[in-house]
């Protein structure tokens, strides 16, 4: 226990709009082998509604693989998944999206030559009914209004919605990727290294966004090597060690050195 945890930061099990579920997303006892590499042996993570859970682990511990199994991008060899309190078996990322699970990938997957609005709707463009009921006209007015609303909801300020993504700073792009995930996700948002490319101020903004998203009743799962910052923002922590969950704990009960010791398997594998 350290003084950095003031107790109030973790109070937010958010209240006003109670979601209709307890477990936002959970993967239990997940195993996955790639050829001879046992990427996951027995990995378990659970994120409740309104919670930020940090997933820590050394390089190669299996964090990204775990996230991809939650998203239906990788089919695991064993294990079970729950989304919004229901057992699920996703075959694709589309299946995950249909249950309200969205991701912010490390490479962001934004299209640099498209505007903010177009990126917010990439793959989900709103079609308006044109004359004679023809489908196929992009409803730009509606798209712009919804993108603007989503960004305002999260207090994200961008120079303009019409500007190409390439004109935004790293932090603005990251915030936009989070906003897009929140606009389409209504159960859980999974983030892989969201602050890796960011400076201190921008990292702080993205961490604040994690809390904002959780306060709307979604579950937030964040993979990060930014231990001090993410430990502060998280409610709970799960640590993977060589593909296996080594620890699940309230964040307030852990210090950074304790997290590091568990990440490297201290006391588990003295010979390594
Ligand atoms: N598609 C793949 N084919 C073969 N091996 C893979 C594949 N994806 C991951 N691996 C292996 O699985 C293990 C876990 O990788 P993973 O990317 O999940 O780790 P990580 O915890 O995200 O690491 P990092 O912190 O470096 O991002 C590694 O040994 C990696 O080389
Ligand atoms: Mg990774």
Give structural attributes:
272 residues; alpha/beta; Rossmann fold; 2 domains; 6-stranded mixed β-sheet; 4-stranded antiparallel β-sheet; 8 helices; 29% helix; disordered N terminus; binds adenosine-5'-triphosphate; binds magnesium ion
Structural description of this entry:
With 272 residues, the protein is an alpha/beta fold. The chain has two domains: 188 residues, P-loop containing nucleotide triphosphate hydrolases (Rossmann fold, 3-Layer(aba) Sandwich), CATH 3.40.50; 74 residues, no CATH class. It is 29% helix and 26% strand. It has eight helices and twelve strands. A six-stranded mixed sheet has the order 6-9-10-3-11-12, with helices on both faces. The protein has a four-stranded antiparallel sheet with strand order 2-1-4-5, with helices on one face. The chain has a two-stranded antiparallel ribbon with strand order 7-8. Helix 6 links the parallel strand 9 and strand 10. Helix 5 packs parallel to helix 6. The longest helix is centred in the last third of the chain and has 16 residues. The two termini are 29 Å apart. The structure holds adenosine-5'-triphosphate and magnesium ion.
What secondary-structure arrangement, pairings included, does this model have?
Blueprint: E1 23-34, E2 37-48, E3 52-57, H1 63-70, E4 78-83, E5 86-88, H2 93-98, E6 101-104, H3 116-120, E7 127-128, E8 137-138, H4 140-153, H5 170-184, E9 188-192, H6 200-215, E10 219-223, H7 227-233, E11 236-241, E12 244-250, H8 256-263
Parallel strand pairs: 3-10, 3-11, 6-9, 9-10
Antiparallel strand pairs: 1-2, 1-4, 4-5, 7-8, 11-12
The chain binds adenosine-5'-triphosphate (ATP) and magnesium ion (MG).
